[in-house]
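Figure-free illustration: sequence to structure, shown twice.
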Amino acid sequence: MGYKSNITRASRLSVAPMMDWTDRHCRYMHRLFSQETLLYTEMVTSPALVRGGAVHLLDHDVSEHPVALQLGGSDPDELAEAARIGAQAGYDEINLNVGCPSDRVQSGCFGAVLMEQPALVAKSVAAMRRAVDVDVTVKCRIGVDDQNPAEVLPEFLAQIVGAGCERVTIHARKAWLQGLSPKENRDIPPLDYDIVHRMKGLFPNLHISVNGGITSLDQAEAFLDAGLDGVMIGRSAYHNPTDILAQADRRIYGTAQDTTPEDVVAQMLPYIDAHLDQGGRLNQITRHMMGLFAGRTGARVWRRTLSEQASRPGADRQVLLEALDAMQTLAEAQEAL
């Protein structure tokens, strides 16, 4: 199977890029749950890479592949150079953020505000594609503010397809650039999955993934069965990775067996040891592990133990072992009742 078919296959299910969440430690853990799912970095701005030289933001473990770098920016030449740096660092895909609604992003004239400038997005995509051999993709909204998605989204997609974009992820909500916080923009604008399906009808050769409000593999399978090419899940994959990712390889890709959170904890221990040996802190990793046992007996004990002990000086793998032991003790006690 070649590179192109590999990355296309992986994008049937992906974990959304999420600021402050999908860092390298989070991605390493997610990969232990699923060997197949496409993973994304947090958004990295092209000025940070090109002008700031912040190449440490591209650090990742080889086990994370397939993994995509999401870039934020609006200068085609700078984005092309950032894409080149990202591809050179080994990323399998370069994704352009045209969906983030934060004030900081707007002031830099990138993110969701670019929905109003499809020609600039297309120019950026074309420049990035000339700079790299890996896929250049776009993550966008259905529109912003008072735009009519039925009018602007087809035009937006036509422009980026004309520039050579072959895969796009559509967050099925508008972004309100004024009046709503980034958090509110993830919840308040109504979801419109129908328009995403309509876009697939208009652009049958464009690989379209849907994002926004998806909380289960049942939903993901329904979207795939209905003809969409991929599904991107964000907060649910982060807060409850076991429910989303542990069954993904079997249910979405037809490979492998389910993974247990206990398996993942055991496999994280050597990674944690190496991180601590390099001067890192335990809570830099365990903050991403809070939801491993969500819904299980003792999940609260697990979270409390990590939150209270992982930030203490000298905290090491023993914190996780103690948390697992406390969970097991509680579960056995409840079974005995």
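We now fold a second protein in the same way, so the two outputs can be compared directly.
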Amino acid sequence: MEYRRLGSSGLKLSALSFGAWVTFGRQVDQRAARDMLAYAHAQGVNFFDNAEVYAHGAAEEVMGAALHELALPRDSYCLSSKAYFGRLPDPAPTQRGLSRKHLTDACHQALRRLRVDYLDLYFCHRPDEDTPVAEIVLTMDTLVRQGKVLYWGTSEWPAVLISAAAEFAHAHHLIGPQMEQPQYNMLHRERVEQEYAPIYNSLGLGITTWSPLASGLLTGKYVAKVPADSRLGQSDNAWLREAVLDAEGGAHARRAAALPALAMEFECSPAQLAIAWCLKNPHVSTVILGASRISQLEENLAALAVAQRLDAAAWQHIENNLAAS
């Protein structure tokens, strides 16, 4: 396993990490979660990602119970949670957003579900136009100083708002945002590569990227049809299926269809090539993988070896093909 610093912090995360989105608490029960977490940890994965909204809190409960059963040393791995959407399907005003009230309540609830004393990483899951940046920063600073959170950051925030939070923190001697969690893959790259470019060095920002496979689109499994047992085949994921397959009028699906042939040139699977592509960006602290079984996790973790053996000419060839598709 390769380890990378979380921006300018001293924390080193595994280049590949494991997340619970749309799997834990739905496709993945406690036993399967335990087995995958144990396998990932044995392979050097030291970061497990979660959020209050995933399966309405069940994802954190499953992960917490599985980690408790495994009894892994707490200092050998990092856990995250994210707050904004709330846990309930129809949350009350005080049960969602980034107010001091909800950020604090959500933190305490995540600690209970995950069965830990502190969160290594805590994210503001989306921007909140109803809450002043000053209130968000002050709340996160308080949680860090209380020892309930070690590092805090944002997810899918615009660069201008991240900068505003960092500037307020600096001006008032508070602990500012250390990381951002954006979507990043071959089909979604503008924000990470362009919008955030000026703030990586100026703020020491690290990024923990999600959806390296564009919800499975870059695996090649959806070229002919949507398998019933796949993520997009789940009946309650109709919203995700529409968002992925119909993105930009189907342009993303058409571009993804060219990936299997390209992967064959490098003797790897489309998923491995797509994940390796994310790893080549030096600003990426960790790429969060999702899986519903160990075989998927095993295949995806092998992307690290693919990334390490491809030279500059190979990467240029890949970029040329992506641009042409």
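Summary for the second example: The longest strand covers residues 78-83.
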